[in-house]
Design goal:
The protein has 305 residues and is an alpha+beta fold. It has helices spanning 2-14, 54-65, 97-101, 106-125, 137-151, 158-166, 169-172, 215-219, 226-236, 245-268, 274-282, 292-304; strands at residues 20-24, 32-38, 41-48, 73-79, 84-90, 95-96, 179-181, 190-193, 196-199, 206-208. It has 12 helices and 10 strands. A 5-stranded antiparallel β-sheet has the order 1-2-3-5-4. It has a 3-stranded antiparallel β-sheet with strand order 6-8-9. A two-stranded antiparallel sheet has the order 7-10. It is globular, with a radius of gyration of 20 Å.
């Protein structure tokens, strides 16, 4: 079915015949991905069963047209008879930033963090033309609580993490920050090509608080990415991190653990364990709003001064 739809959709959307095609195995999403050659050019085609918000793809296309290095879909269409969405992108032959960070020097990690901050600031500050927040923290909390109960997707420290979120209802209605956010902004979703960084994979993107995009670089990263994350956050805020930033990122991190537990149950039929334990310990059993790797860096800096 996907092969037939691929040929049909590519012809309809791009007005071209597929001359060569390879299936791409990488990625954790539900989408099927294809590397396509046609008329001397290369494309990425995704076929996904997920329900997509096409408003965000219109904004991403405007960003792309204005020179912001997001890999936005050139064309897209929902095929109701198949219940599938097809998206066509330019092919960017870059290297995954996550792979680069595993072996590069600390100086290079700092440089990549600064470049990522510049790109993310452009992304967050782009005019969204009055689009409204569709998923408030409260609506997400209710959805996650329902799904956790329905799927019995328990995880370590679930009681403490859920309680932490519930006790902070007062802040749910105080946030007025709003932008298009990626919602899965790991180095894995950034490509490096010709010394430029390109943001990719926007299936989970949503209109939300831009602080929520820092969850993965703070609370779900491996140790070798700490220097990159410190550089990114400092550069994003010009070394003037807002006082409420850590409170909000802990809150969004706790919700991300819930979301990940639901995803892992639905897609992998497995339970979250190590990630939940790491998150809980990173914030000293939720007694500190600042993650351990950032506190340690502050202590080291004060010791050396």
């Amino acid at each position: 079915m996907s092969d037939e739809l691929l040929k049909k959709a590519f012809k309809e959307l791009m007005g071209l015949e597929i001359q060569q095609c390879e299936t791409i195995e990488a990625g954790l999403s539900l989408a099927e991905k294809f590397h396509v050659w046609s008329d001397g050019k290369q494309y990425l085609v995704k076929i996904t069963p997920e329900s997509l918000n096409f408003e965000k793809y219109e904004i991403l296309k405007r960003m792309y047209d204005e020179g912001i290095t997001v890999v936005a879909a050139l064309k897209w269409k929902f095929y109701s008879e198949n219940r599938l969405t097809v998206l066509v992108y330019d092919w960017i032959p870059g290297e995954n930033l996550e792979d680069i960070l595993k072996s590069c020097s600390e100086e290079e990690k700092i440089s990549y963090g600064e470049k990522a901050a510049q790109l993310i600031k452009q992304f967050h500050s782009f005019d969204i033309n009055g689009y409204n927040r569709k998923n408030t923290p409260y609506s997400l909390f209710k959805r996650y609580a329902f799904c956790l109960m329905r799927y019995r997707a328990a995880f370590p420290h679930m009681k403490e993490i859920n309680s932490y979120i519930k006790k902070r209802k007062s802040i749910w209605k105080t946030c007025e920050r709003l932008s298009l956010t990626h919602q899965d902004l790991r180095p894995e979703n950034i490509l490096v090509y010709n010394d430029k960084l390109y943001m990719i994979d926007f299936e989970t993107a949503d209109f939300a608080d831009p602080y929520s995009d820092f969850v993965f670089c703070i609370s779900m990263q491996p140790d070798y990415q700490h220097e990159y994350s410190r550089s990114l956050i400092n550069a994003y805020f010009d070394s003037k991190i807002p006082e409420d930033f850590w409170q909000w990122t802990l809150f969004y991190g706790a919700m991300a653990v819930q979301k990940y537990a639901i995803w892992k149950h639905r897609v992998k039929r497995r339970k979250v364990k190590l990630q939940a334990i790491h998150f809980y310990e990173l914030y000293s059993g939720l007694t500190s709003t600042m993650p351990a790797f950032w506190r340690e860096n502050i202590n080291d800096t004060e010791s050396n001064s």
